[in-house]
Design brief:
Strand order of the largest sheet: 1-2
Radius of gyration: 20 Å
Distance between the termini: 67 Å
Order of helices and strands: EEHHHH
Largest sheet: 2 strands, antiparallel
Number of helices: 4
């Protein structure tokens, strides 16, 4: 699904699904998606790298795969953060003895 378009209208090789169920097809769609993120989320290193990749691909004409990789890493960054470490437990764990 390669396109001969230039700049922000270039299409990704494969559409990227978003958590909301939509698909990002062009660099412009991806950039619009990023600009609608909450500031706290957009300021994370993953999203900053994705934004930089989008800009470089749109302005310098690099392969759209670079922007796709950046976007997919940012979109999937929540998977590893699903259960963040909370430090020490406030309550001590119960101790059990095995009776034989």
């Amino acid at each position: 699904m390669k396109s001969e378009r230039c700049g922000w209208q270039r299409t990704f090789d494969d559409p990227m699904p978003t958590p909301g169920g939509r698909h990002l097809i062009t660099l412009h769609h991806a950039a619009t998606y990023v600009t609608l993120l909450p500031k706290k989320e957009a300021d994370t290193p993953e999203w900053q790298a994705a934004i930089e990749a989008l800009i470089l691909v749109a302005d310098l004409g690099g392969p759209t795969m670079f922007a796709r990789i950046g976007m997919m890493r940012a979109l999937n960054s929540f998977i590893g953060a699903a259960a963040p470490m909370r430090g020490r437990r406030k309550k001590a764990a119960r101790k059990y003895r095995i009776a034989r």
